[in-house]
Amino acid sequence: MENGQNSTESKATATVGKFRGNRLTWIDYLVIAATVLTFAVVADAALGRAKASAPPKPAAAVTAMVSQLPDDPGLIKARLRLAAGL
What we know:
Low-confidence stretches: none
Number of helices: 3
Shape: rod-shaped
Number of domains: 2
Structural class: mainly alpha
Order of helices and strands: HHH
Mean pLDDT: 75
Strand content: under 5%
């Protein structure tokens, strides 16, 4: 009785192909594209949050508010009292 390892049948042998060098396959390009896309999304999110968290310039906010007020000093005092809760 012959063992499977010691059989006399011809076995398939692996042949060594030609070395392909440093060529990239389509999977390599897909991985590179996914990495670049991920980096771009993370950088965009980080920069977007940094811009949103920056406080507004006080000079621009004050000039916009003052320019919308009427010239009547009584109205200005009333708005200040209303804003202060008095």
